[in-house]
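Need fresh eyes. Consider my entry:
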Amino acid sequence: MVRTTGTAGPTLAVVAREAGVSVPTASKVVNGREDVAPETRRRVTEALDRLGYVRRPRFEANKPPALIDLVVHSLESSWSGAILHGVEEAAHDAGLEVVVSAGLTRTRAGHPERGWLDKLSTRGSAGVLFNLAELTPSQYAWLDQHRIPYVLIDPVLEPPPGVVSVGAANWQGGVAATEHLLTLGHERIAVIGGHRRKLCSSARLAGYRSALSAAGIRHRPEYVRHGNFDETTAHRRMLQLLDLPDPPTAVFVCSDRMALGACAALAERGLRVPDDVSVVGFDDLPEARWATPPLTTVRQPLSEMAATALRLLVRMMAGARPEGTRTELSTRLVERASTAPPRRPVR
């Protein structure tokens, strides 16, 4: 992180000379460019800090800025719609304008595109919200070096120390979903999780295991499957569960989209929900209410998460620092018609 001083501070040329690099190379580090060798980046970063290189603030602490950026993973889902709704309402109350982009895509070489960084720098945005983002170390460094406040909404991976994020109580949601099925009398309960390495998926799976353990139900590894947070993968995983010698009578699916794929697999095998297999989802997207039968699911407050993140960002832009780096909002079970007591073994 750069230090703020009461003087104009050294020029970039001085920093470059101190680090033993060219001015263009020093500029690349300051601007978060990725085409710099790690050792060179380290030398320049240390010189920036040692000399107290100061970047001009992008906003006045006593005057709310007019523009922030919201970077979302995709604009094609009802999940993103809920996030946009929450940010829009909170931004309206704060008198802010929001620029939305789905910029964290990847190139054919597998590297994150830099389009959103370049646009952010050009616009002079005073803060950024990232939804389902998977930032690289150099991108975190670019934001810090440019003194741009940012908040993560439901981060994919564990953020670096000190990074502010907002999410849902995923572990408790996993417990609630599994306890609901246990209360109905199910013991053969399977789970279809998302990506193994994603924070939300691992927390929901941990809640599932915790609820089984508390009920004295033996954890069965063959009942644990991982998907890709999409219908197609969940469809395959559900078929695999049905092919087990002792298939489950209920399944907790860690997203509503995946739950719809699981229900399609059950229908393909001639099985009825919930008569033959009970299904619980996670998210409470509009699709859950439209499903046949309507889906029992765990509601995570997506719009509220987004609004909370926006309010935290406004405080950070004004110079305040949140008391904690992680804010979690409560989840709750929404009972509909896709769950019922077990009636007969699945064959």
Remarks:
- Confidence is low (pLDDT under 50) at residues 1-7, 105-112.
- The first helix runs from residue 12 to 19.
